[in-house]
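note to self: dont lose this again. the chain is below, predicted strucutre after it. 569 aa total, dont forget to put it in the shared folder this time
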Amino acid sequence: MMLRPYFVRSAWFSVISCLLILAPSGYMLEVYDRVVNSRNHLTLAMLTLAVLGAYMVMEVLEWARAQIMQEAGEALDEKMRERIFSAIFQANLKKMPGGSLQPLNDFRTLRDFLGSPPLLALMEAPVSLVFLALVFAISPVLGWAALVGSILQVFVGWLNERSTRPPLMEANRSASAAQQYADGTLRNAQVIESMGMLRDIHRRWMSKQREFLGLQAIASENAGCYQALTKFLQTTMGSLLLGLGAWLLLRNQLNGGAGMMLIASILGGRVLAPLVQIVTQWKLVVNVRDAWQRLEGLLSAIPATQNSMPLPAPRGQLQVESLMAGPPGGNASIIKNVAFKLNPGEVLVVVGPSASGKTTLARLLVGLWPAAGGKVRLDGADVFTWNKAELGPCLGYLPQGVELLEGSMAENIARFGEVSMAKVTTAAKAVGLHDFITSLPQGYESQVGRDGARLSGGQRQRVALARAIYGDPVLVVLDEPNSSLDEAGDAALAAAIVELKARGTTFVVMTHRTSVLAVADKMMILQDGIMQAFGPRDDVMAALKKANEQATQAAQAPRQPRPAPLATA
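---
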């Protein structure tokens, strides 16, 4: 409905432009009827000026129609781009289909189709009915012949659809799979190159590429056959109507005389022209239809975010209620019945072996993943349903896999919002990064490169840590924040936590290393997604120490001899 005004205007221009196509035929008849018989030069000049004027109007209408459809594409882009980008982002977070660049390519295909020949030909289709009516007016026999030709053309288009759709759909899927495999290869270029994996990786990519090319060749071959048949029908129809018109003229059954024989032939060809245009461009039509279906599926699966009533800024009280969760779209539970509460300014350290659920818990605490059961509440409000644009500035998050975006140091630390250099400098100093940044030639304007490639692992982690604490958020969740830090980095991390804790920031830190325990208020032991222990740090450590001592004593105690079996009679 949004694009309806553009389509209506373009359709009217198409109708007028198509009717002006009759100008050459009218010019030809008038020249033969008036100029040749009268030999009047002035009549010839006036007719020529008239037909040239018709040509100019027709070209202006074509230009105007192209401009209208370009405006339609811009309006569609303005209306849908944010919605589609958000849907892709959410699909990627939830590990759903569509969380890639494919929907953006589909949207571009759909937008570009608005000015394509098949769509413009479809707008010209109503004029074909006018031409068909004129042929019927010249002679019902010619009209029925043109109608039969149109029906045959539609039938050829249907056959084209049946034969090309399956291989084209499979070819599109194969192309997408090959593209995703190539993207994954580029992301792991260092590993592939260092271990000599390129030849085998290339072989696997080529197999996917060959599958795509083979399916596309089948579709192109089928489409080529039907395109040739379509053009044959159009050419034959013109000659058939001309010959049939001559036959009717000889029988004195043609209205309007000999000139109408040529007019009927021209009109009959124009009746089929839109159908020919659509059939010859059918590959584009199928690609657009598939792109639309994929986009519609994505937008249906991820509804638009509804505007909710703004909530007051949180103070940092975190409450987790009987939390059960696993990866989105999966049935397995990673977090099982975890419950705890933190007051503003408290620091919780979560420890546990690998695959114990620490990363999943971190994602749940900041509202990235939905909970299968229970809730994560910040000041009583559900974190997952809270508007992220509203809640985001109040949260800090450092994921286990540090990702920086292409831009300057200051932009990355300021989360690519409005850069407040005072806040950026404060965050950098808190994590011990200020001296390093100021030593760079461009200081805070230094570019980090794609994925932070110009920085070391420890430097990337410090920049991401500064980003997490930028603006004094009330809740900061850190997932293995010291995995790439040296002793100085560990000390800077502890100092930053102490500094923000004094200002009321609540921290949850997932870690394997014990260096951050010194600044913790509470401690949790997580194993297989189950909370084994939770409480004040000293109490949990004492209980853990006692349990370890008991286990050691049990392991060192001599085994009691097994009693001898009773003798049997």
